[in-house]
Amino acid sequence: MEWSHLPGEADYIKTLAAMEDRVARIATGTADEAVWLLEHPPLYTSGTSANPADLVAPDRFPVHVAGRGGQYTYHGPGQRVAYVMLKLDARGRDVRKFVCALEDWVIDTLAEFGVRGERRTGRVGVWVTRPDKEPNLDGTVREDKIAAIGVKLRRWVSFHGISINVEPDLSHFEGIVPCGIREHGVTSLVDLGLPVTMSDVDAALVATFPRHFPALDRTPATL
């Protein structure tokens, strides 16, 4: 397993091309599995099930067709993106289980900071309840999304991955309907009142990763 940290704001198109190249080499056995940790400049991406009506402000930021599963999402500074390139043919070839493992990884990472992340039926990603906010019109507790998940497979190698909101500009999400869900909002670790840095999140991601994705060899993950 190779862990890499890409400094600065990674160009989306160049990063996607590099990721596709890495996935091709993993599939042929000429490169190791990898996780890339990075931030992008402000942009929107559309997944394979994106609804054009959910792109509220198409001229606000660049819009990229991602080719991953899911709908519209936002990437930008203050958001930790983790691109996960794993050999699923050696990990059971179970896509649903893989997505659940990504969600569990995020949930365990958030737990390192005392945040309870949760799944919701019919909503991909990780959510937190917001009893500190006004309840929904039906009286239920507000919920905000704190992490998104979108993946693609090629020759049973995964790519794309997860994004966790650490301290992004949450107003940037207003240009889309995130993941097609209108009745809930978005939040971040800092928005929840936690003085968490990107380095803190990276350390938590590395520490919790092996619980859900055991190494295929005996080399420990390092960053």
Task: Give a brief description.
With 223 residues, the protein is an alpha/beta fold. The protein contains 3 helices and 11 strands, in the order βαβββββαβββββα.
Structure description:
With 223 residues, the protein is α/β, with parallel strands linked by helices. It contains three helices and eleven strands; from the N terminus they run βαβββββαβββββα. Strands 1, 2, 6, 7, 8, 9, 10 and 11 form an eight-stranded mixed β-sheet that branches. Strand 7 (118-120) and strand 8 form a beta hairpin.
Descriptive labels:
disordered C terminus; 223 residues; single chain; globular; 3 helices
Distance between the termini: 11 Å
Using only CA atoms, what is the Rg? 17 Å
**Major beta sheet summary:** 8 strands, mixed
Number of helical regions: 3
Specify the helix fraction band.
Answer: 10-25%
Which strand-content bin applies to the residues?
25-35%
One letter per element, helices H and strands E, the order comes to EHEEEEEHEEEEEH
Number of strands: 11
Mean pLDDT: 92
Query: Spans with pLDDT under 50 lasting ≥5 residues?
Result: 218-223
| Strand-pairing-aware structural class | alpha/beta
Shape: globular
